[in-house]
Structures are given as C-alpha cells and as structure tokens.
Write a structure and sequence with these properties.
Layout (H helix, E strand, L loop, with lengths): L1 E2 L5 E2 L4 E6 L15 E7 L7 H9 L10 E6 L5 H20 L12 H19 L7
Antiparallel strand pairs: 1-2, 3-4, 4-5
Helix pairs in contact: 1-2
Subunit structure: Associated with 70S ribosomes and polysomes.
Protein name: Peptidyl-tRNA hydrolase ArfB
GO cellular component, one term: cytoplasm
Length: 137
C-alpha cells in the first residue's frame, strides 16, 4: 500500500511492478540478476479521486502514455528492494507534483517614484558615458 496523502492511498493491485535486467556496465553480475524495476500505474483504472486523475492526465510528461499509464524504470541501485522503493517514491512524487495548485500571478506596475528614479539614473548614466568621448584640444 502506497500512502499519497492522509486520505489518499493506492492499493498494491493498482501498481504493476516487474523485475528486469538493468542496463549498463556491471560485470558478470549484470547479466544474471534482474535488479532493475519496471513500474506501471494505470491512472484511469486506479482508485484515485477524479481531481488527481484529471491533473495527472493533463501533465505533459514523457513517462505518461496516451492511454494514461505511468511507466517508471528504476535502476539506480544494485538491489531490487532499493530500486522498488525508489520507483514507488518517484510515483508518489509525480502524483503530488501534479496536484499542487499554483498561485495565480497578478500583474503589477512600478510606482511613480520608482519610474522617476529609474529615468533619472538612466539620464545620469548617459551623461557619464558622454563625457568619455574624445577630447578636442
């Protein structure tokens, strides 16, 4: 059971975990041991609340297929248990990230005094630069 928040949990049957062989160098052990984890989570079939499902499916993430299946591959660690924990933690982080509501941005404009100050600084800087020109004797 994966706990997402206080009132949202995922049952073990919702998450499909498969052990596969890890890629990359690793000597003789890498060819014999299936230590990497392939995690698949079907968003549409899950028991997540509708708000979570909508937000997840709206994400533009390469890990989410067109059918609404999240596919994660964990192979950072040497043991299957650590890779399984890593994959579950990444799934939880993805779901939590999707449900964060961004604060709406309100357009602001600088005050009159700030605008005057800026223009005065520009004028002063221009005068300083003008004095750098060639001297005429």
């Amino acid at each position: 059971m994966l706990k997402i928040s206080n009132n949202v949990t995922l049952a073990p049957w919702e998450i499909d975990i498969t052990a596969i062989r890890a890629q990359g160098a690793g000597g003789q052990n890498v060819n014999k041991v299936s230590s990497a984890i392939h995690l698949r989570f079907d968003v549409n079939r899950s028991t997540l609340p509708a708000f979570y499902k909508e937000r997840l499916l709206a994400l533009k993430d390469s890990r989410i297929t067109k059918e609404g299946v999240i596919v994660l591959k964990a192979q950072s660690f040497r043991t299957q248990e650590l890779n399984k924990e890593d994959a579950l933690a990444r799934l939880k982080a993805l779901i939590l990230e999707a449900t964060k509501v961004e604060k709406a941005r309100r357009a602001t404009k600088p005050t009159k005094s700030a605008q005057k100050k800026r223009l005065n600084q520009k004028t002063k800087r221009g005068q300083t630069k003008a004095l750098r020109g060639s001297v005429n004797w």
